[in-house]
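Slide 14.
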Amino acid sequence: MSKPRQDGVALVTALLVTALAVTLVSNLFWQQQVMVRGMEGQQLRLQARLLLQGALDDARLALRDAAAAQGNVTTLDGRWRQPLQLRGDPADLRREIVDAQSRFNLRNLAGDAGINPFQLAAFARLLAALQLDPALAGPVADALAAAPPQGSARLAVREAEDLLAVPGITPALLARLRPFVTVLPERTGVNVNTAPPEVLTAVANLTLQDARALVAKRRQAHFRDTSDFALRLNDRETLEGVDFQVSSDYFLVHSRVTLDRVNVGAQALVRRQGDRAAALLWLREL
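Slide 15: predicted structure.
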């Protein structure tokens, strides 16, 4: 009776060892597959980043060419405004350029001397045009001030997303505000040739309806210089202490690449410098 029992135990042991061996081998194959897919993912991501870099380089050159073609003005009908879209197998590349100076530069709100009251009033007008509370202009200006008022927090506002730390700024409010504001490295004037109607209400004494009518006329003939803009305001005055111009130096480049299963986006800020390719100031992967 002991012999068959021993044979049965040996058979069960052999089956258990075989099952364990199969499990170990399967785990090894699975780990190897995961490693291979991880390496493939890294390679695809690297290729996607190279495509993003190529799109950024093309944008920088397009901005240089537009400056050579348009001279001392920057308008919405320049080559730089033409979006780049390349579709293939397996890559899909999209890129667009946005004039950063078509937006209200929050850096203008304050400097070493404190809050600029003229820019503060202009920003409040923009908030009102967007049907947002104009009183929010004060806390935002405090956050930008080099020496904020007593009791106010000193915040590092480097981009619009940083405004979420300002009391009263909610994600929904920021989503409404984001297309109309920017934070540039220095104080700049608004480009009235590219600014949307809402931003133009922060440049001149215009209602939103007036600004929309002015933008419609701008499509037929852009502003040649600041005097031309002031002349076409029809007796409405520009706001005191608010700088404006007809050209731009700062631009945002938005790019996105889909490569197989990898999807990578990037945002860059560039500064145009004469007849040279625009200089890259910062690049953020999204």
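Speaker note: Helices lie at 2-70, 117-129, 137-144, 171-177, 197-200, 208-220, 226-231.
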